Amino acid sequence: MSKTASIVGFLSLSGVVVARKYLNNNIETEDGENKYRSVLSESRSLFQKSFDQVTFLSKQALSKIDKQNDLNLSARDGVEPSSSSLDGTKDRFSSDDSSRNVFRITKGLAELLQNEQSNQKFSKSLENDLNVTFKAWYKILHHDEGRYSSNRPPGRFQDSLNDSFDGISSIEYYENRNIAANEELKRILYKFLVIAHKMTQKENPRFTFIRDVLALVAETITLAPERGSFYNFLLPIACGRFLCSVTLNKNHRSLLLQNQKLMQVLKDWSESKTLSCLSLIGQNCLWNLDNVDAQIPNGIFIWEPSSNDEKGSKDGKTLDVVWFHGLNGSAFYTWRHAGIKFDNFLTSWPIDWLLKDLPHNVRFIFMDYDTLTVEANLEIYQDGRCVKMENIVEARARELHEKMKVIQRNKGSANPVLLIGHSMGGLIIKQMLMLDEQEKHSSKNPVFHNLSGILFLSTPHFGSPIAKKLGKLPSAWVRGSKTLSQLGDYGTCSLLNFNFVKLMLTMPEVDVLSVAESLPTKFALGASFVVVPVVSAYPGFGKFRILKSDHVNVCKARDNNSDSLYQLVKDFVLLHVPSDVEELDFYKSINPNYMYSFVSLGLN
Prior knowledge:
There is one protein chain. With 604 residues, the protein is α/β, with parallel strands linked by helices. The chain has three domains: 2-68; 78-163 and 171-275, no CATH class; 296-592, Rossmann fold. The chain is built from 21 helices and twelve strands. It has helices at residues 2-29, 33-77, 83-92, 97-119, 124-142, 157-164, 171-202, 207-221, 230-247, 253-258, 260-270, 276-290, 349-352, 374-377, 392-411, 424-441, 465-471, 481-487, 490-504, 534-537, 564-574, and strands at residues 300-303, 319-324, 362-367, 379-382, 385-388, 417-422, 451-457, 511-516, 521-522, 528-529, 543-547, 599-602. The strands form three sheets. It has an eight-stranded mixed sheet, sandwiched between helices. Helix 13 links the parallel strand 2 and strand 3 (362-367). Helix 11 (260-270) crosses helix 12 (276-290) and helix 16 packs across helix 19.
């Protein structure tokens, strides 16, 4: 309120100064009483016009403040805006059919979630996610309640100032605002889908809720993708995650089987040759529907070797290559092709390229887990009860460790295992090995009893200085600040690494290769930092290599010919594939020189 009053006062004073300056300049250069009166009248007219415009802006600003207060009260009490505001918002997103469909789907999903929230009690973390997303949704609905004659959506105070003057064209700005509004709407739809996915995992949603959400998911998948739109590529992933969670629920599985439209979508995804991530989701969903007694746990996606592939032998053991992403990563977009931001966002270089250069008996297992929602991350379920953890890496490691047990029980446990982790994923790998060692001493079957090798990609074995600094900032400024503070803590990371090295000294058969970044990563406002320094990327054990890459792209291959990361990963995997005499041709291309040196530079 005080800020708005200050702006209005400044504009009022500016109008007076302009009028007086205009008057004084003309008085000094012109003579005659008649001319003086003419200039005085013109100056008064200019001042009155400025005063009227400032009065109009001040009233509009005060009205906007009152409506914002009403919005906050509505969000707090869970009351939706009036239907008139919905009609206005529909007009705002009426530039094309896709935008109207996004608004309609988002509105329908919001109503379903609100009804479900009123009928049952959610966990604290899920309740917080719902309230934050509802507040953003109500803000979009409220945005158009103050529409005025210029037919433009109201925005910042400067926008209203521009509109109050005649002769100023705002068509280009209007189009940009619409694009931004559509992206914000898709972001909210994505958040709603993520919440629905979490509900199917940890809550017990009603049968009708799942049925209605499945109908909206079918419509979301059919939205025409827009080139360069970030959330247009994330929405199918959110839908796929929800479908995977539905396949694991025996009470809701029948709803998906009855939806012919979604079943056809899953079949098309599984057969896709260009969208690897969607193909991964489609295959997992169809597997879970067909194999009720051997289902794949939520958050794990398996790419099985094709039975039609003529390469390699089908009689030997299969090498399981397990991929762990880092902070704010995903099983889907972390391993995309390097240099790709939006176009072909659903690609995966391990599936698109690496599998074609490997023998038949290699299977990829991609881990997908949340790393930013702190409260949810610290809640894990063991033996049917919720356990609160203090360390986010340990919480994720315990959860994934239990899921790997299910995979081995359903898919076999005799396969050799190769672990690949980027950044925080490497810390999770080490923590899982510590848990495995504890179970070995407690007469339980360890998960990684047949471990073959570990590949670390820019893992902060001794913490990350930039993560430590960012972790000290308020959570309102930096998302996941608590996670960052733990990743940057030298003591915690060093203790974990000490225990890991001590364990590896007892397992000489396990190959350890660490890769470091050498280029700074670009952040907002032009800042750039090396996220994981070389001294932190080497755990003090095993082989080591430095690549010419930053932290984000150190896990992304640019091509399958000359890229250093691709050649390194391919050769490292080939060295651990159970080989037969018929498969020796696959190993002729291996260049093991750097594999057996202490340090090797790949600065190509």
